[in-house]
Amino acid sequence: MTWTLARRAERLEPSAIREILKLAERPGVISLAGGLPAAEGFPVEAVRDATARVLAETPREALQYAASEGFGPLREWVAGHLRAQGLGVEAGQVLITTGSQQGLDLVGKVLLDAGSTVAVETPTYLGALQAFAPCEPRWLALDDDGAGPRPQAMAAARGARFAYLLPTFQNPSGRCLDAARRHALADAALDAGVAIVEDDPYGALWFDDPPPPPLAARAGDGAVYLGSFSKVLAPGLRVGWLVAPKRLFPKLLQAKQAADLHTPGFNQRIVHALVAGGLLDTHLPALRRRYRERRDAMHAALARHLPSGCRWTPPRGGMFFWVELPAGLDAASLLPRAVDAGVAFVPGAPFFCETPQPNTMRLSFATVAPDRLEQGVATLAAIVRDAVATTADTPRGVAPPPQMPALG
Amino acid sequence: MTWTLARRAERLEPSAIREILKLAERPGVISLAGGLPAAEGFPVEAVRDATARVLAETPREALQYAASEGFGPLREWVAGHLRAQGLGVEAGQVLITTGSQQGLDLVGKVLLDAGSTVAVETPTYLGALQAFAPCEPRWLALDDDGAGPRPQAMAAARGARFAYLLPTFQNPSGRCLDAARRHALADAALDAGVAIVEDDPYGALWFDDPPPPPLAARAGDGAVYLGSFSKVLAPGLRVGWLVAPKRLFPKLLQAKQAADLHTPGFNQRIVHALVAGGLLDTHLPALRRRYRERRDAMHAALARHLPSGCRWTPPRGGMFFWVELPAGLDAASLLPRAVDAGVAFVPGAPFFCETPQPNTMRLSFATVAPDRLEQGVATLAAIVRDAVATTADTPRGVAPPPQMPALG
Predict the structure, then answer these.
(1) Strand residues in A84-124 grouped as ranges (E)
(2) Are strands B196-199 and B223-228 parallel, antiparallel or unpaired?
(3) Is the distance from CB of B44 to CB of A60 less than 8 angstroms?
(4) Which of A75, A313, B14, B374 is the most buried (most CB within 10 A)?
(5) A43: Cβ–Cβ under 8 A, 6 or more apart, which residues?
(6) All domains of chain B, ordered by start, with CATH?
(7) What is the ipTM of this complex?
(8) What digits encode the pLDDT tens for the residues A185-231?
């Protein structure tokens, strides 16, 4: 039998991250590659209690088909939580999704035709590129000055169906835009008529001080805003949400119905029991302490071991360091050696929609204890130093790869 | 802000079933409209035990991100279960999905371009039409002789990306194709080079004798086969699966990654604990007895109350009766009166991709106890009799709506 594939299926590429994660599952490898949260930080006891309560009080409701919009009390909780952050959100605008990855899939389905333009940061979240890719959009890289996309870039993006932005502890770069840039970007987007799709899975994971309010707080009906319980509770429950302008909501809801009918009601009720019971009041501070300690350990290890010419900015939240190696190095080509030596990371190139910077890498500190972080970074640094030395030995006639714009 | 919608989003229509379900949620309404399984049949105690075991033995694994393919032991179980039914399936061909609705979404994404042809039965599952619609396919109704799509119709469907078929206790018609028709259809599809997408959520819910082997058992690599735990365990867990030929599997897997990363690992482990523990050996016979009793009650009530000129065949499994009213009646126009009188059903028209038969309705017996079925059918029958009388009074000059092919 000859199966004829859809054109979009020809574009579906194996996830580089997933393939590397498999590589890094070898015993003994210290993985700085994952996008996983720390499993030892999962609130297991609280999940046990919440699950037992759901199965004692509303077992048949939890196990039955449910509304595509999501579990009402959870939608109310999300809306209230966002109103406390300055967003004018009603529960009727909250759509519960099967992880916020599904939110991206639905946004693409509802807003993108083949050939539509999506404006993105460089680098940006690989999973979003993958979620939008089946709609066959055209990517437009927003001009960036290091502090974020330039507000002027929004005018250049006029006509794009939306700008996909992660202003808060971005995956992969860890970057957090300041309040002034957020205001300027939101205003420029509104001026240019460019809708914003704001992805914010890491906002609650701040280590030093809370991030500024989301772009959506200023952009209002000009923004779809996505969030998740994956990083603050547990990703294995697959419960996320999006907030949509009233005009868009019915279309996203219909796309959701067609995609999986609804997110498991069982899981939504467990999440609601957890958050409504006030778990986050104690759980989040503990989580922030744990991650802050690891962030500090990784920062110290990078400073101690990486050779000069490497650049990074310690993130003020989230899970990732973004490291720029000296120009001429290709992080991907170092990966097999690194894994052989017992440490894994994610090369930066796949996070670029165009003109990748091969001398970048994403390092996660989330799942690794401080002493292992020190060991992993030391191992990685040795490989980088070796590569720098080899590159320095290369005759001048062999030019480094082109296209190496300075990292902001 | 003006949001520009994708062309496909303009095609997304509110789900008629969902809207009617809302209507039927009014207290006091006997709903024959739902597609829900009987909640009193959920194995609540077993779910409690399985959940407790998962959270005791592998809590952090269950709550962490997991492989997009699905939980290995569950994939193995599904493959073994299918091999026992005569399908040559390896675990590596099993993709766990967030309900089998997601399987349909993924199949569409991987196989359908705008304008691609999908061959379907008439009527067919509304949720599949909705899942495929965002890909903007062209529908081709397979010619049908009442015993199923005619094998010759496969030649007429040559060039279609696939034929979407529900040979076993179809939603909405309840029809089950016999073994000879299955063989002939599978062979004709292979001859014509038409791939088969076989949807089988109800196969285990037989009341009289087991259905013949799936089409996929004969079509082999010419078929994708979809199943679900929603009807045999509980839909609120949202765990389904599909089996794909090896050539297609990687593309479906990539589409799955992009859609929601993975189906909740927590839920997959609960389902695995349930089925691997042998629950279905006792649970399925009890479920079949419950549904058989209701099927019998609805059949008796229909025979007792419906006026002459109404036609139906009692289903040998699944959850639905498909009733053809006398020509000239429009089931949709009876619905508001029925709901006012305290009974809800689903009009048949939305289940047709073209040329709907307005004089059809789908009645579910799954969630209603026998005495209430009797009462609901009696109420519905009174409205039908009234409509028949009114139609008979209509002067001959007012013709009934056109396009009333005989129901097979």
Answers:
(1) 94-97, 117-120
(2) parallel
(3) yes
(4) A75
(5) A233, A234, A274, A279, A283
(6) 13-35+281-392 (3.90.1150.10), 45-277 (3.40.640.10)
(7) 0.93
(8) 999 999 999 999 999 999 999 999 999 999 999 999 999 999 999 99
Are the CB atoms for B268 and A266 separated by under 8 Å?
no
Distance from the Cα of B359 to chain A's closest Cα (Å) equals 26
State how far the Cα of B234 lies from the Cα of B41, in Å rounded to an integer: 9
Query: CB–CB of B224/B196 below 8 Å?
Result: yes
Please report where in the chains the tokens 């419960």 appear, as a residue.
A239
Contact B234 A63 (CB under 8 A): yes
- Verify whether the Cβ–Cβ distance B55 to A51 is below 8 Å: yes
Q: How far apart are CA B387 and CA B368, in angstroms?
A: 25
> What does the block give as tokens for B209?
């004798």
Query: What Å distances lie between residue A360 and A185, A310, A326, A356, CA to CA?
Result: 26, 10, 9, 9
Say if the Cβ atoms of B39 and A247 lie within 8 Å: no
Copy the structure tokens of residue A174: 């860890």
B268, B239 contact by CB (below 8 A)? yes
Cβ-defined contacts of B141-147 (< 8 Å, 24+): B141/B352, B141/B353, B141/B354, B141/B355, B144/B408, B145/B408, B146/B407, B146/B408, B147/B177, B147/B178, B147/B181, B147/B408
Say yes or no: B51 contacts chain A, CB-CB below 8 A: yes
How many Cα atoms sit within 13 Å of B80 on the Cβ side? 9
| For chain B, the helix, strand and coil percentages under 3-state DSSP, each to the nearest 5 | 45, 10, 40
Measured from the Cβ of residue B146, the count of other Cβ atoms closer than 10 Å reads: 10
- The pTM of this model reads 0.94
